Amino acid sequence: MNARTAVVVEDDHDVGDAISQLLDQAGFDVTVARTGAEALTLVSEGRPDLVTLDLTLPDIDGVEVCRQIRTVTDCYVIVVSGRAAEVDRLVGLEVGADDYLVKPFSMRELQARVAALFRRPRSGDAPAEAATARPEPAPSVDVDPTDSEGCSDLTLNRGAREVRVSGREIDLTRTEFDLLAHLVGNPGVVVPRDELVRAVWASDFVPESTHVVDVHLANLRRKLRSARNGNQWIRTIRGVGFRFDPCCP
Questions:
Q1: Tens digit of pLDDT for each residue in 201-218?
Q2: Mind listing the domains of the chain with CATH numbers?
């Protein structure tokens, strides 16, 4: 039986120990990092399934730590921070965090948010019921490389969790892929922000504002645009939501 792994990045010993204990009880093999440099080493070498990340660290700002984590792994990242301003939340999400939890918070809420994230499986993973028990190893999945959606220039393969633009694979975060997959699955249809929140986060413990959808989609569109000379497949419908236009020039 293989436990999931987690790195808790927290210089406050009491908070770090509390999070570590919670995740251990939920079935994770947990390592605690007290500095940003230590966290980056642990993440790079261990490739954990989950990182909880404080933004205020004694050596490297947590935003930069998150940015560097995203260069080596697409693991789930939950920012756990005392910075409550909207700009801090948005910056955290912009650099790749999957969720943002403001201190002080209840351990029960953190547990629920972790469980919600793990209901969004990675490639080849089976959806988890919740972060309350040690998971069984994920079964292998046969991926059909021809099972793709999208259009001639942009293709998305759900089984492989792979997106290509003109044949070139695009590196997306888990949240960016899930948002794009939902839009691609509804071509030409305006999808409201709250529907995207329900589809992607799939939990009662969802981001406090649907504005986080705009942040993740802005990152997604920037990656798609840079890969294809400004091509825009995702349209913003003011006051409503977003639409995927397969034939958009």
A1: 755 445 556 677 888 888
A2: 4-117 (3.40.50.2300), 149-244 (1.10.10.10)
